[in-house]
TrEMBL record:
InterPro entries: DNA-bd_dom_put_sf, MerR-type_HTH_dom, MerR_fam. Residues 74-129 form a coiled coil. The keyword Coiled coil applies. SUPFAM superfamilies: Putative DNA-binding domain. This is MerR family transcriptional regulator protein. Residues 1-69 form the HTH merR-type domain.
Length: 137
């Protein structure tokens, strides 16, 4: 299939597929005599893997390293496992930070009438006093 068909099939823009190829996140894509990329299921699987890892927050550098380890001839399963474990820890930390922010917003919503309205009125009053020059820094 060509790059447009691969883009439709994977949901990855053609420009991103070209970028993945340039950065070594997917193998070099064979081309027809006319220079048109000929993408097979092997490349589709790699595109989908790169898309998933990038969506999960894996850096380009970490993904390049993992792909290099995967493609290497020597047995380096320990390094692959360690890299994936490191990425999971990074992603879990991001998830926990996001969950803390979500929990805080839920608390604000749950206490909007009995806390937030009063607090925001106090802040507005302070801002107004400051803009009128009644408060100094």
């Amino acid at each position: 299939m060509n790059i447009k068909e691969a883009s439709t099939r994977t949901g990855v823009p053609a420009a991103t597929i070209r970028y993945y190829e340039k950065e070594g996140l997917i193998p070099s894509i064979d081309r027809s005599a006319a220079g048109v990329r000929e993408i097979d299921d092997r490349i589709i699987r790699r595109i989908n893997f790169a898309k998933l890892m990038r969506s999960a927050g894996m850096s380009i550098e970490a993904l390049q390293r993992y792909i290099h380890l995967f493609d290497a001839q020597e047995n380096n399963l320990t390094e692959q496992r360690a890299l994936l474990a490191e990425q999971v820890a990074i992603m879990e930390e991001k998830r926990d930070d996001l969950q803390a922010a979500i929990d805080h917003l839920h608390w604000k919503l749950d206490h909007f009438d009995d806390h937030m309205v009063t607090t925001e009125a106090e802040l507005r009053s302070l801002e107004q006093q400051h803009s009128e020059g009644k408060l100094s820094d």
